[in-house]
Design brief:
Layout: E1 3-8, H1 16-24, E2 29-32, E3 41-45, E4 48-52, E5 65-68, E6 73-74, H2 76-88, E7 96-99, E8 103-104, H3 107-120, H4 132-140, H5 153-164, H6 182-196, E9 200-201, H7 203-212, E10 217-220, H8 245-251, E11 260-266, E12 269-271, H9 283-293, E13 305-307, E14 309-310, H10 311-321, E15 325-329, E16 339-347, E17 353-354, H11 361-366, E18 368-375, H12 392-405, E19 409-413, E20 421-423, H13 437-440
Parallel strand pairs: 1-10, 1-11, 2-5, 2-10, 5-7, 6-8, 7-9, 11-15, 14-16, 15-19
Antiparallel strand pairs: 3-4, 12-13, 16-17, 16-18, 19-20
The structure holds guanosine-5'-diphosphate (GDP), 6-O-phosphoryl inosine monophosphate (IMO) and magnesium ion.
Length: 450
């Protein structure tokens, strides 16, 4: 006690990295529980920008325990590069721990991701091509290779042989690629194993210790509810469950270890990759919003699709996550837009109206938004520090969102910097309003140096 989960409430890139970094200040540990380096979490601190893909967004807090949980898929090349880059920038990474049970992204997963997208042609998902889907597929097929396998050459080689066998046909175009050579691959991955060994641990137990000692543990989600493989816009989704329930599975804790669930949403909508996005806008307005919001993918650099805030989708995301609080980011980006639209229901192809997020793919693909128009504001919000600093119209907008979704807003983002946030009155009813958990809790065993 207590556990707090941070999840994306839309299609990813809501600002989870920034919110996690802010809450990490109060936490004893930050744990990633799903996804892989398809994620790109940005933190802006002291005028410097950090882009994290695998390492939890608590790493900038010196000595903070940061855990890559068993539910994450790890590309060891990306992880070692990320560690090198952090060290180069003088960030202490000694308190990072990686689950021995996390699955590895192998070179053939990247190839299969590319090949799969190429085969789909116009129907492609628009994946990040980081091998995420093929890696989770191998995990489910029980052909996966885990971090612990890196520490034993015989086992590693054997597992690669078994994993490659059923993929022979699909990998034929890559047959001559040196990265596919058994010996080369084994040696490369043994080198990663050597490098990562000090960080590999029984992370489930470490997290239990922190929770049992009464410390605050933040579970950092990647992607967002609408990219969830079960609850999102399938098949245009990622291959994991970004919803809060997955924090339990992907870190090895139980539902009763989770006390709060914070859903992060932008004040408008974005999506990167293909798939339905009923409130999408185009033309000059979308270009303007994209430029103002800097809406380009952190991982792939792709321009993000932009649109109005879809409250039907947000209410759905709140319910499937059992959100206790909302963090609304990028309110500043909406300044200067005369009339704002919020989507309060969807309209299907034959005029049918949907107050709930449509479960059927065909309906969703043809759905458009029904909007309520709200007045905008012209003031620059980037220096607002309290709710009362905000223009009336901005407060009205936020009030409407919180009431429609039925979840209080704890935090409002008015810029990328750590001080560009407003902690609302409602935040006082969350972990923020309570005395720091870590201060009163017993100290857990110190971590050994890796
Ligand atoms: P994540 O994947 O959910 O962590 O989000 P990303 O890092 O991919 O994208 C969010 C972007 O918005 C980053 O560039 C952040 O620095 C930026 N950001 C976060 N909060 C705010 C905010 O309140 N206002 C503005 N203008 N930018 C923000
Ligand atoms: P963060 O954590 C936004 C999208 C891809 C694609 C779909 C499947 O930064 O919010 P995948 O490579 O996972 O198989 O791609 O999911 N996607 C994301 N979009 N933010 C992310 O992560 C994403 N991770 C995956 O664009 O549409
Ligand atoms: Mg991102």
């Amino acid at each position: 006690m207590p556990g707090l989960v941070i999840v994306g409430a839309q299609w990813g890139d809501e600002g989870k990295g920034k919110i996690t970094d802010l809450l990490a200040d109060r936490a004893d540990a930050v744990v990633r529980f799903q996804g892989g380096n398809n994620a790109g979490h940005t933190i802006v601190r002291n005028g410097k920008t950090w882009k994290l893909h695998l390492i939890p967004s608590g790493i900038l807090h010196r000595g903070k325990l940061c855990v890559i949980g068993n539910g994450v898929v790890v590309d060891p090349r990306v992880l070692t590069d990320e560690l090198d880059e952090l060290r180069r920038r003088r960030v202490d990474t000694s308190a990072l721990r990686i689950s021995a049970n996390a699955h590895l992204i192998m070179p053939y997963h990247l190839m299969l991701d590319h090949a799969g997208e190429a085969k789909l042609g116009k129907q492609q998902i628009g994946t990040t091509r980081r091998g995420i889907g093929p890696c989770y597929a191998d995990k489910a097929a029980r052909l996966g290779i885990r971090l612990q396998d890196l520490l034993d050459e015989k086992i590693l080689k054997q597992k690669i042989i078994v994993a490659l066998e059923p993929k022979r046909l699909s990998l034929r175009p890559y047959a001559k690629d040196p990265a596919l050579d058994l010996q080369t691959m084994t040696e490369e991955y043994l080198t990663y194993g050597h490098r990562l060994e000090p960080y590999i641990a029984d992370t489930t137990r470490i997290v239990h210790e922190r929770l049992d000692a009464g410390h605050l543990v933040v579970f950092e989600g990647a992607q967002g509810a609408l990219l969830d493989i079960d609850h999102g816009t399938y098949p245009f989704v990622t291959s994991s469950n970004p919803v809060a329930g997955a924090a339990c599975v992907g870190a090895g804790v139980g539902p009763r270890d989770i006390d709060e669930i914070w859903g992060v949403t932008k004040a408008y909508g974005t999506r990167v990759g293909s798939g339905p996005f009923p409130t999408e806008v185009d033309g000059a307005f979308s270009d303007m919003l994209r430029e103002r919001g800097g809406e380009y993918g952190t991982t792939t650099g792709r321009p993000r699709r932009v649109g109005w805030l879809a409250l039907v989708a947000l209410r759905y995301a709140a319910r499937i996550n059992s959100m206790t609080a909302l963090a609304i980011t990028k309110l500043d980006v909406l300044s200067g837009i005369d009339r704002l639209q919020v989507c309060t229901r969807y309209r299907g192809a034959e005029g049918a109206e949907f107050e709930y997020f449509p479960y059927h793919q065909t309906v969703l693909h043809h759905a458009g938004g029904e909007y309520l128009e709200m007045r905008g504001w012209s003031e620059d919000l980037s220096d607002c520090h309290t709710e009362s600093d905000l223009p009336d119209a901005a407060r009205e907008y936020l009030r409407f969102v919180a009431e429609f979704v039925g979840v209080p807003i704890a935090l409002i983002g008015v810029g990328p910097g750590p001080d560009q946030v407003i902690w609302t009155n409602a935040s006082q009813d969350t972990v923020i309003g309570r005395p720091a958990a870590t201060a009163s809790a017993g100290a857990p065993e110190p971590l050994a140096k890796p």
